[in-house]
Structure to design on (100 residues):
């Protein structure tokens, strides 16, 4: 028997198709960012498949947020390990926005 509900990966692709009109009018750099956001969601397909939420937007957004959090942590580590004064100045500026 086939599945009665679509796979999470299918929902991500459907979401991307539904937003094609929006994506079409974006600048090139924004289109690339949009695609990267969908790629973030694709990376978490297994986790998204294990949650029974009727609105697929929520696990898609959570997948994107997880990837962004990983990027922020990586950047913080690089800044903390750096002795470069420019990095230290950037860290001081970022402390206003992000808790280090």
């Amino acid at each position: 028997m086939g599945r009665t509900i679509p796979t999470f990966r299918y929902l991500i692709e459907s979401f991307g198709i539904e937003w094609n009109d929006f994506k079409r009018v974006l600048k090139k750099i924004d289109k690339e960012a949009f695609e990267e956001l969908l790629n973030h969601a694709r990376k978490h397909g297994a986790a998204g498949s294990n949650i029974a939420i009727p609105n697929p937007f929520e696990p898609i957004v959570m997948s994107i947020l997880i990837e962004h959090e990983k990027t922020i942590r990586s950047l913080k580590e690089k800044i903390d390990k750096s002795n470069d004064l420019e990095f230290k100045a950037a860290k001081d500026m970022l402390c206003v926005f992000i808790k280090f």
In short: The helical segments are 8-18, 20-24, 28-43, 45-49, 57-81, 85-94. The chain has a mean pLDDT of 82.
